[in-house]
Design brief:
Structural class: mainly alpha
Number of domains: 1
Radius of gyration: 17 Å
Distance between the termini: 20 Å
Number of helices: 3
Order of helices and strands: HHH
Number of strands: 0
Length: 77
């Protein structure tokens, strides 16, 4: 194995991003199973801050973290 080998995606950003995506998916799936899609959709598009909106924000943050984890790591010489 070369000393220049870089394990792309195996870092802190990818792990945290994956965790956020999984947690948000579980919360949204639970809400849909308990309340139904129409009820969740109503809470998703109203003016108040709701659990569904926080879950969508968590999904977005998770995808951003995963994207940061897959960027190229350039080391200073």
């Amino acid at each position: 194995m070369s000393h220049e080998y870089y394990r792309r995606g195996k870092n802190w950003f990818t792990a945290i991003g994956t965790m956020f995506c999984i947690m948000a998916t579980i919360v949204l799936a639970r809400q849909i199973l308990v309340w139904g899609f129409d009820f969740v959709e109503e809470f998703l598009f109203n003016a108040e801050i709701t659990n569904e909106k926080v879950s969508v924000a968590m999904l977005a943050f998770g995808f951003i973290m995963i994207g940061l984890g897959f960027r190229k790591n350039v080391k200073a010489r």
